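REVIEWER CHECKLIST
Item 1: Sequence provided? yes
Item 2: Single chain? yes
Item 3: Sequence as submitted:
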Amino acid sequence: MKKTNFEKNLKENDSAFDSKTIEEAAKNILLAVGEDPNREGLRRTPLRVAQAYDELLAGYNTDPEKIINGALFHVEYDEMVLVRDIEFYSLCEHHMLPVMGRAHVAYIPNGKVLGLSKIPRIVDMFARRLQVQERMTREIADFIQDLLKPQGVAVVVEGLHLCMMMRGIKQHTARMTTSAMRGAFLANLATRQEFLDNISRGASALRV
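Item 4: Structure as written out by the authors:
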C-alpha cells in the first residue's frame, strides 16, 4: 500500500505521543488562567486532558494496513458504491477546537471493492489529527484512490467548526462544505451529479 510522506514521517516517530508532556502543559494552562491545579476538581484534569488527546489524535499512530486488514475483495461491479453520513470528530489545527460533521464517500470499483466498515475507519483515521477540513477531504479521496485504483472517487465533507462558533465571529449555524473528486467523478458530469443527488436525497441536516 502506498504511503504518503506524512505517514512515512509518522512511522519514523512512532512514540510521538508523550502523555507526561501533555499533562504538564495542561497543568501550566490551569496556572496561566489563574486556577489551582491542586484543588479537588482539577487534580486529575491534566491526566484527563492527556487521555482525551490520546484518543482525539489517535489518527497519527494508526496503521492504515491494520485498518484495511485484508478487506479488499475482487468483485465484478462497476456501479457507484456510496457510504453517506459518516460522522466524524476532529480538532482544527489553528485553535485546537473541535470540528464535527459528516462525510460522504463514494467510489466506482475497478475490479476490487473495500469492506463496508473500512470507509468510516478511513475517515476516522484522517479526522483524528490536527486538521483543516480542506486537507482532510483531499487525504480521504487520495487514500482510497491509491488503495483501490478505482474508476473514480468522490468525497464531500460537511463540518461545524467550534473555532468559528465559540469565538471570533460567533456564527452558530454556519457550516463548511468541501469536496474532492477523482477520475470519473471529475471527468463525467452525469456521474458527479448522480453522487451529489444521492447525498442530498433525504440527507439530515447537521444539528448542534
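Item 5: Key structural point noted by reviewer: The CA atoms of residues 83 and 194 lie 14 Å apart.
Item 6: Recommendation: ____
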